[in-house]
Amino acid sequence: MVEANKEILRVDSERLKGWFEELSEIGATTQGGVSRRALTEADLAGRNWFKVKIRSCGLELWEDSALNIGAKYSSLGASGPSVMTGSHLDSVENGGRLDGALGVLAGLECLTRLKELEVQLKRPIEAVSFTDEEGRFGGMMGSQALCGKLSAGYVERAKDVDGVALSDVLRSIGVNPEGLYTAKRSSDSIHRFLELHIEQGPVLGKEEINIGVVESIVGLFNWRVRYVGQANHSGTTPMHMRADAFKGLVCFASAVDEILKNHGTPSSVSNIGKVELLPGAANVVPGQAEFTFEVRDSCGATLNLLADKLADAATDIARRLSLQIQIDSMAEIAPEQCDGDTISIVESAAADLGVTSKRMVSGAAHDTQNMIALAPSAMVFVPSRGGFSHCPEEATSWKDICNGANVLLNAIYRLAC
Ligand SMILES: [Zn+2]
What we know:
With 417 residues, the chain is of the alpha/beta class. The chain folds into 2 domains: 13-218 and 335-416, 3-Layer(aba) Sandwich (Aminopeptidase), CATH 3.40.630.10; 220-333, 2-Layer Sandwich (Alpha-Beta Plaits), CATH 3.30.70. It is 34% helix and 23% strand. It contains 12 helices and 15 strands. It has helices at 13-24, 41-56, 101-116, 141-146, 154-157, 166-172, 203-207, 245-263, 300-320, 340-352, 367-371, 398-416; strands at residues 60-63, 69-73, 82-88, 125-130, 190-198, 211-217, 219-228, 232-233, 269-278, 284-285, 288-297, 324-333, 336-337, 357-362, 377-382. Strands 1, 2, 3, 4, 5, 6, 13, 14 and 15 form a 9-stranded mixed beta sheet that branches. Strands 9-11-7-12 form a 4-stranded antiparallel beta sheet, covered by helices on one side. Helix 3 links the parallel strand 3 and strand 4.
């Protein structure tokens, strides 16, 4: 039996590697990545795999009405709110093997390891996999539901980029869509939340630092913008007599950089995602141009200002080109600060393990961002080789993965003692 707070613990690296290889086969793509978009067949298979693993590790299994899946371990005498860790098993289309999966598998390994070492803990510990972190349906559904942050009407409105309705998908697998609104955990059931994740950027690798300790997570807003003009014969309609919806898109896209430069911060970023032109023929002037658009920054006031300036610019362009415009807000996530005490515990766990760490801002959204509303939270990053993520090239050396898992293990251990 291990005496609390006296020892540096280490994960079972071989077991973790074995799980990682098994899970990577589920939804594997020919390019070496995975496609496990939320609630697709591959994601459902990944979720089942996780449930079987939880049971085979002798841990308690739970699943809530937002389809979040968790493992729980209470050592003898443990009671009260849990120390929770976790991330997500879903991926983007043809994404990497590590994004999300690392935090879930390492969480499961931490619980399993603490159980087999018969470590005495004061608090229960939980490892969770959140549903749809990658936002197939427009948000971070699982962690938002668990934190009671799903906006009214979300479930009824939510569709993926192909127009598939979330409520239809849920019903097709025997789940009541309304249940998503009742998945909220009480804040007194969670003591702390800690997520291990790949950095998804180049900083740790470039600076040769083992561990990133996240201080804050950027916020974002995500719009669907539609310019509507008049479809017409492109051979017979003179250029000056057109209401070309695509021109609206082009003018907006080329105005964005300047608006970010003038009203944003050096860390403000934006991106245009899916673009659709209708009717979509070379001999027809585009009557409609629809696109998705996202902006991120670590400052809430900056995000608000950028949203105002960008909406003004989009509307001015429509007026100038005789187009109509519609802007639908698909998602809005506020930037969040991580918990100072938890950050210190992560830093001291890293130092005791002899690995280097630095504090940083997360430019990507994560489930932790929602969990902050329920419990003091923090994140641990490990380097992403070449900074690649959301693609099959996403990779982290096994040594870096073990460093991250060991930091997570020791931090959880200290938080739960
Ligand atoms: Zn992720």
